[in-house]
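Supplementary notes for students who missed Thursday's class. We covered one full example, reproduced here. Read the sequence, then the structure, then the short commentary at the end.
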Amino acid sequence: MASSPLKHHKSHSLNGFTAPAKRTKLSFISDSEIQSEFSHHDQTIARINNGSFGSCPQSVISAQQNLQLQFLRQPDNFYFNTLKPSILHSRSLIKSLVNAHSVDEISLVDNATTAAAIVLQNCAWGFNEGRFSKGDVAVMLHYAYGSVKKSVQAYVTRAGGEVIEVHLPFPVASKEEIVSEFRKALARGKENGKKKVRLAVIDHVTSMPSVVIPVKELVKICREEGVDQVFVDAAHGIGCVDVDVRDIGADFYTSNLHKWFFCPPSVAFLYCRKRGEEGKGGDLHHPVVSHEYGNGLAVESAWIGTRDYSAQLVVPAVLEFINRFEGGIEGIKKRNHEKVVEMGEMLVKAWGTNLGSPPEMCGSMIMVGLPACLGISNDPDTLKLRSHLREHFQVEVPIYFRAPVDGEVDSITGYARISHQVYNKVEDYYRFRDAVNQLVSDGFTCASLSN
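Structure (token representation):
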């Protein structure tokens, strides 16, 4: 990206909601400055897996380290005079970025898994306290994140609820396929009026395989069908896809800030829509009970005992970094999407395969079919191949196993999930292309790898 002067700097925004910028003059960040910000990355690795752990620039790491030292230098002063107002400031910035109605609707937690536990714990209480009937239903996508699926089992199933999974096609050709399967699952959940769907858990961007889900349409369907509450798990949301929580309309929405929003691990926000005095599900609590219990979820989450809260406090520094890019976060999202689609199309052309979804159904990640001759026949094969690519070709990329449908012959059973973030170079994807071409040329199959 070429450097360009900006005479009158305006703060950039997410979905049109402006966050304040401290600088009055700023030049767009250059390619060399981007590489400097991420010089702590292992430069020998083609890191095309931003989706798993995210990435944090050096300027934000420095801000975090300064906050950590402030605490260690005088912890009492930090706790009484810095921590709570700083967390409130971060919450206020996130509130504006995602268009929440009130800062009271925004809580900061460790990650999306913690947010899921908060929502699912509340659902379990509905069964335990007799507000829900045994056998009432929670609906979730089959491709929900593994830990969230286990959390649903731990909280909802154990409390007496039934779980219905929405089985989605993959590869997917259109959002209509997803909408159709979701309607079918809700119909099964209601079972001619004998049961009630108490909670729908909907991903905004599924992890593996990665597909952008039409959340606004699915939330609307939930409202039409009388679903009690809707929880959107958007672990990959903010910084990857458009996030306007009022427009989406869910009761709960969570997103990690360390995946696509440049925060250090680990921090996420949980949005809880206000429902009025009689609001269902209003009695939400952090699963770790500390001194602030009963003072509201946002305050409870801001103090769960002595720990490192610095990741929650660097949101202003992250916005400083983001605003160095042309178009701010909107520009970053647009360029990441365009580049990941371009690289995905380059790879499937080189290998004679296909993408896992249309380009409009991906954000900053896309699923790329691997040659069938690699012999990916189960989930352990994906882990073995991933390790082989890391150790022998210095390529870091997650791989998904797609079980063949009955009657399919020589079908594509392995898909790589490639990411694009600002630090990536085209050479990263060429290295992956050449590595797979070499494996094919050598007659490699996953069966040749030891367990």
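Commentary. The longest helix spans residues 75-98. The two ends are 43 Å apart (CA to CA). If anything here is unclear, bring it to office hours.
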